[in-house]
Amino acid sequence: MGGGEPLDFISYIRDNPDQFREQLIDHLRLVGFSVLIAILIAIPLAVLITRVAWLERPTTWLANIGQTVPSLAILGLTLPLLGIGFRPALFALTIKAILPIFLNTVVGIRSVDRAIVDAARGMGSNDRQLLCFVELPLASPVMFAGIQTATVQNISLATLAAYIGGGGFGDWILQGLAMVSPPILLAGAVPVAVLAMSTEIALRGLRRIIIPTGLAVS
Length: 218
Description:
The protein is mainly alpha-helical. It is built from 9 helices and no strands. It has a single domain (18-171), classed as MetI-like (MetI-like fold, Orthogonal Bundle), CATH 1.10.3720.10.
């Protein structure tokens, strides 16, 4: 049976710097790679869906349904195929990250003013030019919001990777729960919360830099 004062988590982290560093790296790898892979899959898929009208409704319906599937269920479904460790955790987090990026990209492209699209076509723009220089730039605030949501969401979901040996701060959270030790639990939970908040602030700042003020969304 564990114990100790909750604020002892600071001492626990200080006494275990190598383990903290390892879990931080694992957590960042899971989140970074999952979001990057999700971007490479979701945006081209969303562009394709907006070009093939009959696919849009069933695909977005499936994506919305997918948003409701618990992450633990996805982890469980990957075990027979990928076993335990980093790979199944990465796969599950990638699936969860694809959905908000995909849906926001579809919504962003569809929300572009048709008058602007018609004007671009009237000036001789082909489909590729229309996509690259009109639709994607105008949809970028909504797309970026999807990436921001996926990133912050996956920082929290990555703690579940500990259930299948995927590493990250979830290891300390599970250990703290098993030992009924608030300091160990908080040694995992507090860095996740700090990482999520700092990432949210950093991405908001990045959005202000890369997206023109006139296109910004709240």
